[in-house]
Structures are given as structure tokens and as C-alpha cells.
Amino acid sequence: MFPGTGSTAWDAVLELGIILAMIVAIILMIKNYRDR
């Protein structure tokens, strides 16, 4: 997906962090949309 840091563990952590951040952003967007 993007150039790695050379460490497999760090690459996995970064990818998990990005996925979690996207999920949280989507959840917040849905909550804000429902509150209208």
C-alpha cells in the first residue's frame, strides 16, 4: 500500500493504525449524520 519502513512489525502496526483510524472516522461521521 505504501513504502515500508523495513521492519515488518512496524509496517503491520502502521497499517492497523490507519485501518482503525478510518473505522473511527466513519463511525463518527455516521453518529454526526444521525444526530441531525
Automatic annotation (TrEMBL):
The keyword Transmembrane appears for this protein: yes
Keywords per UniProt: Membrane, Transmembrane, Transmembrane helix
Membrane-spanning ranges: 12-30
Protein name: LPXTG-motif cell wall-anchored protein
Lineage, broadest ranks: Bacteria, Bacillati, Actinomycetota, Actinomycetes, Geodermatophilales
